[in-house]
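Lecture 7 notes: from sequence to structure.

We start with a single chain of 202 residues. Read the sequence below before looking at the structure.
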Amino acid sequence: PRDSFLIANAEYIAKATGSDTVGAFLVDTHGSNVAAVAAALRNRLGTAATVTDLATSRKLVGSSLTAVDLGGLTRLELGFALALAAAATGLTLWLGLTERRRMFTIASALGASRRQLGAFVWAEAGAVTLCGVTTGAVLAWTLSQMLVKVLHGVFDPAPDALAVPWQYLIAVLVSAVVATAAAGVAVIQATRARRLDLLRAV
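Now the structure, written as tokens:
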């Protein structure tokens, strides 16, 4: 064997290949004299069959395949995505609203109440969050479907459906909402203080 699939169902192979003829035999040597048994089989079978011992197969598989535990890498990537989601929602919204401090100050000077300013902030925060979550969900679903189709021939058997990590997605959504709420509260707190220097700015 020269692949990671060392064991397969005989009925599946017969159905996929259209033949139930056995093409390979595994000889049990009880763990001893593997090379001697392989040499004896080569002398007896000649060129009618290819005889490979287990040690050679292990070296070949070990040199062509790399076994990697993706658990740690997956947790690292998911953690980075979680932090990125919080930064992309809360931090971006806070920076955008902070740039309009002069507008809030002018509106407050013209008689706008704190409740009206807060309604403006929360309306924009809700719109940004809703649009971001909707767009992200559509793009993620489309990308996942494309990857499954592209990698369909890599996996044997191919996956029947997408595996959706609901707990992680809920955690991302909660972190985005919390970051947005924190940014909104910070902006509302900043608009309470009237900045005369902002009114004089051109």
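Helices lie at 10-17, 34-45, 54-64, 71-98, 101-109, 114-150, 166-191, 196-200. Keep this in mind for problem set 3.
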